[in-house]
Amino acid sequence: MSMDLDMSQFVAIFVEEAHEHLANMEAQLVALSVEQASPAQFNEIFRAAHSIKGGSATFGLSDVTGIAHELESLLDRLRNSQLSLTAEMVDALLKSRDLIAQMVAAFEGKGSVDQAEVMQTCEWLKRLAGNTATPPASAPQIKGEGREFGFFENAPAAPPAPSLPGEGEKFGFFENAPAAPKPANAPAPAPAAAHGTVGFESSSIRVGVEKVDQIINLVGELVITQAMLAQMAQSTDMALQERLALSLAQLDRNTRDLQEAAMSIRMMPISAVFNRFPRVVRDLASRLGKQVELRLVGEGTELDKGLIEKITDPLTHLVRNSLDHGIEPPEERIKAGKSAQGVITLSASHQGGNIVIEVRDDGRGLNRERILAKARERGLPVPENPRDEEVWALIFEAGFSTAEQVTDVSGRGVGMDVVRSNILSMGGRVEIASQAQRGTTMTVRLPLTLAILDGMSVGCGDETFILPLGTIVESLRPAQDAVKTITGRGRVVPIRGEYLPVISLAAVMNIPACAKAEHEGILVIMETGQRQVALFVDALLGQHQVVIKSLETNYRKVPGISGATIMGDGRVALILDIASITRMGLAAAAAETAHA
Questions:
Q1: CB-based contacts of 497: which residues, under 8 Å, 6+ apart?
Q2: Which residues in 106-190 belong to E strands, given as ranges?
Q3: 15-19, 475-479, 545-549: which has the highest mean pLDDT?
Q4: Rounded distance, CA 131 to CA 139, Å?
Q5: Distances in whole angstroms, Cα of residue 145 to Cα of each of 53, 71, 137, 148, 149
Q6: How far is Cα of residue 465 from the mean position of the Cα atoms in its chain?
Q7: What pLDDT, on the 0 to 100 scale, is given for residue 330?
Q8: What is the crossing angle of helices 62-79 and 87-107, to 10°?
Q9: pLDDT at 426 over 90
Q10: pTM for this prediction
């Protein structure tokens, strides 16, 4: 039993290291320049292939060992300047890397590998390395290797070009979006260049996520204990109060330091996400016949591991969309007086308690008229003289992108509304800025972690709720006759020339409120997605950092609630999901005024 346990641990280490070597290999291969490749780059890729080969041999993964051997042969000749790098070699090396990744995944029990493809790729590598005689069947066998891998069957001299997974989305709101894929005889575009690719940090240790989660949970309990003591201190007699206050201040500092240290364990550089994009851009640019340079900025910016896992798909979607629709084909760019090669910049930075990620292109920009026309065609509410930001926000509406616009390039048919809802579910938001012929910038703002929240506690009846501080714009007590009722829209309040819908938290939560009229309570102006609403509550109670507890884990999903926390007096306070509360409140108001 103990032997099995030991082997399972070794297998996990091998798989994790293999993924690191494969990611490093891909980053190095995508960054290769056919004209300026250096022996040092080939050495780095060779070392990654050699490490994978050694590990796979230990676990009897003969196919991995075989293809890694052929990789080594080609790379050895390249690093010794016996061969000159060609674009076909880069394609073959990338294809081999993909196959090894598939084999490692199959070893984990995820998917399978096409053996014919393995044989074809091995023959391709051998031909490029000059190790295969013509015809391939007469090639010499390598001692101790070959027969079990099936390398020497009469396979074609070169495999077909590797097929790419479906990428990008067809939304059709960019200027003159090209529909035709690259002709078969078109010259290959220059591969995407990646600036500032970050290598893997070797001076690190692996820690099981469950252990980190346990530490974070314990730190959260410590924060709650500290809050309880602070509450108790208020009722202590004067003689002890000063000493207790000093001790609590020390506990507060220690707790905050421990909290930050524990949270930092889960923090990872965003390069874990960014490093996949050079390959995505290279493959899609090649497929679309475009020339694109990818620039990466701020890859060392750190955020929570849970966020990294969740942000990958939305970011991939935004990058593919910029490449598919923002960046023009070379001939169109030249006509517009631009460089034939487009630029996509992916940047990350910290701003306050948030991480800000930008996907910026220098393409054709969004087509305002086309978006407005399509919005009206879909029956979406459009203001009379909309600002640019309001127009760009329309592309995030559900149903804006349609099935007939999804081509073989997009594949999945996921709309921008799904991208926005995924980002909102992480407590973030996404914004768009665009200029015709200058390009488009999509900005994603996220909290640094999903475990701690800066919140504002509000009172509603006898209950206390937490509003995420990042969604609050301002709060105010309205004049007695400021709030009006408009048929079809419900209660609204004028704020700087704009009528904002008023949502009663008590009505949405179905609880009795202390303040019966808006002027007796407080209106909290909240921002959700691209719109603002006024949330009617009884009182503002205070601002503090709260430890988020999952309701779904301990109870079940509750509409309008994203989680819970324990307050200093030991009571449970629910954390509001502002996007959900807004939808529920607006739907209730519309139904009420319709019946009136």
A1: none
A2: none
A3: 475-479
A4: 8
A5: 13, 14, 15, 7, 8
A6: 29
A7: 93
A8: 150
A9: no
A10: 0.64
